[in-house]
Amino acid sequence: MDFLKLVQIESKKIFSSKFLLITAAIILLGSIAFPVLTKATGGRRPNYGPYYYYEPAYSQEDLIIDGQVIDAENPCYWDLYDIYHTRQNIQEYASTRADDLTIEFFDMLLEKYLQMAATITQRNDYRQQLTWEMSMQLGEKFILEHLDEEITDLQQALQYRIYKDPTELQKYYEMTEVEVMEKLDETNAKIALIDKIILDNDYIAFYDYNIGGQYTQIQSMEDQIAVLEQDIIENPVNEEMYNDQIESMRRSIDNIINISIPTQQYKKDNNIVPNSGDWREEAVNNIESMKYMLVDFTILPQEDFEKDEYLKQQYGNYKDYTEKMQKKADECNEAIYVAQASLDNNKPDMRFVSKGARNQTVNFLWYSMAVAVFGVLIGGGLIAREFQDGTIRLLLIRPKTRTKLLLSKLLSLLLICALLYFGAGIVNMLVNGIVFGFSDFTYPNYTVSSGAAGVGFLAYFLPKFLVCYITILFAVSTAFFFSVSTKNTAVSVAVPIVFFVASLIGMELLANTVRYHWVAFTPLPYINLASFFTSSGTNDIWYDIYYSTERGVQPILEYGVALLTVLSGLLVTAATLIFMKKDITD
Amino acid sequence: MELLKVEHLTKVIKKKTIINDLSFTINSGEIVGFLGPNGAGKTTTIKVIMGLFSITNGSVRICGKDIVTEFEEAMKNVGGIVENPDLYKRMTGRGNLRYYASMYDNVGENDISQVAELVKMGERIDDKVKSYSLGMRQRVGLAQALLHKPRLLVLDEPTNGLDPIGIKELRDLLKYLAKKAGTGVFISSHLLSEMEIMCDRIYIIDNGVLIGEKSINGHDDSQEEEHIFKYSFITNNNEKVYSIFKSMNTNCSLTESEVQLIMKRSEIPDIIKSLIGEGIDIYAVNQKQRSLEDDFISMTTGSKSQIR
Residues B158, B87: one domain? Predict the structure, then answer.
């Protein structure tokens, strides 16, 4: 009881400091400001879709063709720019038949591109994928319609946009008239389909088009396999040489059938609008890329490993190699499980709602570092200040043992930090709910161990919320220890902060080096426990899995939590022992 | 009643003996001075008594409670100032008193106002400490020592920074507390004259050793036969008297108009008889009142010459 009263007295004293109130206000303000600012600025870079990324065309002038204005943000801008200016140049010096043909071809391209540019205006529009295909098909059509021209003229006319090998072109000239007509019909049909997708925004047709493309790819590989197999029959010596190729193509075909086509089919069946920000699209794409990764993570038999100098250099021995590959595979399988469970329940895991209340709340855990810095600033002066100001003498002549006085100061600071940390966390959670919608909180998260129904967000978040407080506990204990042992405020504040910053930088340097396994047993990787929980989003999940397992240092969260807790306890015990015996000389 | 009992107290810091086998007591209602030159071990002794220093050897009891084994019980009965009264500068005087008051049982807002009045802080008690003069900090320092009405008061150089009026007020206050409340006061100072008028008893310390105890109490000891005094002789032949004294191996000195002799009172009549026997005319012999300062200086230098 006596001790609790002291804690109350000390808390009151710490609370009377203006510095504390200002810092606390800043931290609380941050918990409100972050969701609002994230919402206002759009947060991370916009999602341009999984495959397409354009450099922003800063300060490019608008293009004006036939009265149509195309701004630099338009996905067709650079193609049009290129086509338009090339055509102008050629027209200026046109003298040969080839030049005339070029102008004719470019007029055809220009007309189509202007049409597309009028429809596809946003950078993240899925239809921009088809513009290149469109120009290929137009080239095909142009060739088929101009087989009466000289082959060299035709090649020259195409070369600015499409390179055709003379032998390749020659094949067109060798076709019969019927074949040409058939091919032309086919090409026109393709152009019509692309037009339909682009002009009508018919994304179901888009998926069909993609699936068709996949089957074409399969067909072409099967043709190649047939050619190679025929060759083997004729020349059995080549068998060994071709077998690898055939096998690799068979694997590719399997992957297309088992991974790529079902992905497109799922999107089609579920009427998912491409690049619209639908979380299901992200989940399906995630499954697709994880499955492809899994293919890469197949563990080779030992004899193959021993033959592969590159692998040996990278992983050292077969045991490490299998462990790392297994770990990567496990992480991929976990990611697939999460995505599949989200789709099955039709309730997204938070990783698929990057601008959702859950994701924002978890990512805000890093502010435990801000509270830790706050705790260090106060904790460093807690005892040292009393020594420096001489007030320690009038304090220690009270009828309270030194241990009681010391621990009451520490405990009251830890309580204030807890109040600030959990308070700011809860405020942040509420503001996230208001800004991004509370409904996101009702969705579960999934792990392999949680089962298909997943875990509710609170059950998922609270343990992490608590664990990150240990970062604060450790920071305060360190500052407190130095405060008691050095009696110097500046040192007690500087040492933990320098140590924290150095550990974060040091980790970055050491973590990527395979050799330093022992680092995982030091406190270094665990200083900022929030880094275990905050993620960079699904866009980088491939990167995360690949590089985290390649790192030499493999931190274990449970170990880190135990280590920091024990170290904090030791620091406080040491501080108490030092303080109990100390002669108060000044 | 013994409020403070120090027994065979020894304190060694970094292999250096700062205080050596110190024993003394302070009783209820008594103001006891603690006198010594710089570096004698006064502040160290006070720090040990107040629990700021550990004890190498010996024991300290406050109201019968050992300050090591019964720290909290012992400290309830003592208040004090050690070195400068350093307060929390960002808080008001009252804020400081409130903070300290909260560490005792049953010390309330009334007691705070009461002690503030007792040390005559007036309205200034509600100002921030950083705006205080040294004298005002001394007053608040004294106030925090009195908050819980301790039976023993330990004050380290409390007159530092006080003006003459402040010193008089402090003296009156301590005398009042000692007389009315039976408080025991242990006070260290180097202001000898101040000690003489304030204290009932004085301990003199030098080089960590207690070298003297003197009670003042207004008691006239000029008639004590066995006491040593300083005498001045005015005669018709001072040079001859001086040489006679020197031949007697006594502590003597010659000035322009007189011969001074430090001697036991009981031996003076014989000395006068022998001077008369030598044919010297004696005009006057004066016995000088010994001051505390004389004692202090003779005792401490004496001890130093012994040790060195």
Answer: yes
Q: Domain range holding B195?
A: 2-215
Q: Tokens representing A13?
A: 């004293």
Q: Does B128 touch chain A (CB under 8 A)?
A: no
Interface membership of B132 toward A (CB under 8 Å): no
Read off the CATH number of the domain in which B283 is found.
3.30.70.120
pLDDT in tens, A85-136: 999 888 888 788 888 999 999 999 999 999 999 998 887 888 888 898 899 9
Q: Are residues A470 and A565 in contact, defined by beta-carbon separation less than 8 angstroms?
A: yes
DSSP string, B27-60: ETT-EEEEE--TTSSHHHHHHHHTTSS--SEEEE
Residues of chain A contacting B137 with CB distance shorter than 8 Å: none
Phi, psi (rounded to 5 degrees) for B263: -160, 155
Distance CA(B261)–CA(B232), nearest Å, equals: 6
Provide the terminal-to-terminal Cα distance of chain B, rounded to the nearest Å. Answer: 39
Angle B31-B37-B40 from CA coordinates, rounded to 5° = 90
Give the Cα separation of B197 and B292 in Å (integer): 10
Is the predicted pLDDT of residue A464 greater than 90, yes or no? yes
- Among the partner residues A17, A390, A399, nearest to B103 by beta-carbon distance: A399
Q: Specify the residue for token string 């970055």.
A: A508
Q: What is the pLDDT of residues B201-238, one digit of tens each?
A: 889 888 888 887 877 765 556 666 767 778 889 999 88
Residue B233's Cβ-side half-sphere holds a number of Cα atoms within 13 Å equal to: 27
Helical axes B134-146 vs B164-176, angle rounded to 10°: 10
Q: Examine residue B61 and state whether it is found in any structural domain, yes or no.
A: yes
Low-confidence stretches of chain B (pLDDT < 50) are 302-308
Establish how many alpha carbons lie within 13 A of residue B5's alpha carbon, considering only the half-sphere containing its beta carbon: 9
Same domain, B54 and B106: yes
